[in-house]
Amino acid sequence: MSVLEDIFAQLEKSKDLPIVQEIRDGQIISVNGGELLEMVGKARAFISTHGLKKGDRCGLLAHNGIRWAAIDLAMMAEGAIVVPLYARQSFVELVAMMRDSSPVFVCCEDAALRDGIHRQWPEGPECYLFDQIFASHASAAGKSRLADSDPVTIIYTSGTSGEPKGVVLTAGNVKFMLGNTSGRLDILMQHFKSDTPDGSGAGSGGATAIPRRDQVFHYLPFCFAASWLLLLTCLLRGSRLALATDLTKLAGDMRLAEADYFLNVPALLERMRKGIDEQMEKTGGAALMIYRHAKAAWTRKQDGRPKFADGMWLSLANSLVFPTIRKKLVGKNLKALISGSAPLNLETQLFFTMLGIPVLQAYGLTETTGICTLDDPRQFEPGHVGPAIDGIEMKLAENDEIVVRGPNVFAGYWSRSPETAKALRDGWFHTGDQGEISEKGNWRIIGRLKNLIILGSGHNIAPEPIEDKLREIIPGAQQVVLVGNGRGYLSALVTGSVSPQAIQAAIDQVNAQLPHYKQVRAYHVHAEPFSVDNGLLTVNGKLKRDQITARLDEEIESIYRAKQAS
Fold it and tell me: 446-463, pLDDT tens digit by residue?
């Protein structure tokens, strides 16, 4: 059976159970497995009557939602290659991707998205609205037209240092990965076993209680590989997937979903951590006193220098403070948070561990079908991203670059043979990431090779660890970016509402732990944070370093001129 046939079979089994939900203004809108199959049938009928042939590309431009999931499944079932597009991205960037992939048509969530595409690309393909697609009473079913070797999607990379490239993933890539993600989630659910009832009632006969299913919350856009994999994994497992539809209301939606786990990016976990600190300061009183003492005790415990009363403060916090924080933050069912897309600050991971919330990490790229490693909840090491998943080979090559081989590795870049040949050499995919592996077999990501700063002295420096530490301890800092290629020393660009005194104090603290060539000697404050809107962050929050250094070229030059003058 193809991966889609497995998913459709699970939806049929779950025809009376809520499968995908949207959270809108505090209300939950659900479809069960049968209703989702009906929507897929309508979308397949529409697609099949609009000239789509097997192997044709078809754009999908929308925010996360039930209809997005139905159309995605329908396109794949009809043999199309889905090109998922981010609804918050600029139309200039969206059209560039569409020109590259040449979709036969595009399915748009609403008229605003359709009209934006048409203004930017008047001669572009036809755009059909979701309302048109689901308006028909016609329906189509039948077996999916997929072989494992068939391409099913072209997902564009974030373009941190250049033009985004279309990553071609096959049905075989996806089938292999879903088996692994589902298996690891089985381990997670068993490790944190709960007897809480599902809450969805009896089975179709009304008399037999059904086993508890996973309850999952999700807010990351489906146009990202790992996010899309989570959607498909939930459908395959028959989980209840609750989708956030308003990113400004995430805090309330998290509690409403009462999830067992959900996928995160480190930036959100950092904001959650700071939000907890701020809320505790507002709360004051005995709770704040216990919280402060417990945090200090926890830090000393991690550093191996505990004090006599530390156990008492941690015990008080675990009884009186931390359970309240957990409940207000993520509800009563949470077993673990899952983090990916970028390295997670070690202090943040340990902070959540202190609260009794395990944070498990995953590592991978779009080219590896989203995932290479996954933390095993039974034996994870903070600061690491887990072991390679079964069936995948990983090793270190020149300059400690991680290279990967296995059924998860992509088929190639769309219409970019030279780039494909550069990335895939002798059967190994070259990730561009530097890493190391622990004695327990868990991987740690050090940085990106292309981000290495090479000083005039010849020293090669991975900027990410230093940037993360500075950002962590500079109050009000939004981003920290190190510069210094070809220069005599490192300097830092700091964004946000920050004071020079706080920056210098943080630099002095970090420098004390670094060899001379890694020390930061100067800095510049750029008040406006880097963002997607100003073109200096990718859509998934990664720094566009080349664009940042180009945009701030004069500021960077002034750092070094001022230092020379002094």
Answer: 888 888 898 887 788 889
Query: Is 265:541 a contact under the CB 8 Å cutoff?
Result: yes
Name the residue type at position 337: L
Give me the residue label for tokens 């210094």.
484
Q: Across all residues in the chain, what is the average pLDDT? A: 90
Tens of pLDDT, residue by residue over 187-235, are 999 888 754 434 333 333 443 444 678 999 999 999 999 999 999 999 9
| Length, in residues, of the chain | 566
Using CA atoms, how far residue 142 sits from 5, 84, 139, 434, 498, in Å, is 10, 24, 10, 46, 60
Domains within the chain, CATH numbers bracketed? 3-198+208-260 (3.40.50.12780), 263-332+335-449 (3.40.50.12780), 452-565 (3.30.300.30)
CB atoms inside a 10 Å sphere around CB 202: 12
DSSP 81-104: EEEEEETTS-HHHHHHHHHHH--S
Q: Is the per-residue pLDDT at 262 higher than 60?
A: yes
CA distances from 442 to 87, 358, 386, 403, 532 (A): 36, 16, 4, 15, 33
